[in-house]
Each structure stands twice: as C-alpha cells, then as structure tokens.
Amino acid sequence: MTDQHLEVIAGVDTHGQTHHAAVVDLLGRHLADKEFPATSSGYRQLMAWLGSHGTVTAVGIEGTGAYGAELSPGPDPVRDPGG
C-alpha cells in the first residue's frame, strides 16, 4: 500500500479480454501498472488497485463506448444536471 495522502492520476487502456491500468503521480512519474481481466471481478480488482496507490484525482479511460463502458460511470446528475 502507498501513502493514501498521495494524489495520483490513472489511465486505463481497455481491450476485449483485459484492461491495462497505470498510475502516475501529479508530476507524471510512473508509479505502477497492471493488467486485469475484463470481467466484473476484474473491474472491482482494478478499482481497488487504483485506490491502493493514493487518492485518485482523475482517471482517463480509453474506449468508454465499447470495451471500457463498464468502467465508465454514467452521467452524474449532481455535477452535470443536464446529463
């Protein structure tokens, strides 16, 4: 586990069978990367793994309309009332 006070940014490259995630600090320094299965269990593992590196301030997800759709949250009515 990494210091939970560290702010990090994550990126996820999505594919049909696997997703590959990477975490960098706010200066862009690589902290870690790992591959996860593109399954419900794999999504939960990926999200827990991201959080284990610190406070995730942003996540870029490639392919949110296709392979990454399960990782992408729907519209947030509080942040974007127009949806």
Distance, first to last CA: 36 Å
Mean pLDDT: 84
Strand content: 35-45%
Strand order within the widest beta sheet: 3-2-1-4
Major pleated sheet: 4 strands, mixed
Computed Rg? 13 Å
Order of helices and strands: EEEHE
- Helix percent reads 10-25%
Shape: globular
Helix and strand content put the structural class at: mainly beta
The count of helical stretches stands at: 1
Count of distinct strands? 4
Low-confidence stretches: 76-81
Question: How would you characterize this protein structure?
Answer:
A hairpin with a 4-residue loop joins strand 2 and strand 3 (30-37). Residues 76-81 have low confidence and may be disordered. It is globular and about 30 Å long. The chain is 14% helix and 37% strand. It contains 1 helix and 4 strands. It has a 4-stranded mixed sheet, with helices on one face. The chain has one helix at residues 40-51; strands at 7-14, 18-25, 30-37, 55-61. It has 83 residues and is mostly beta strands.
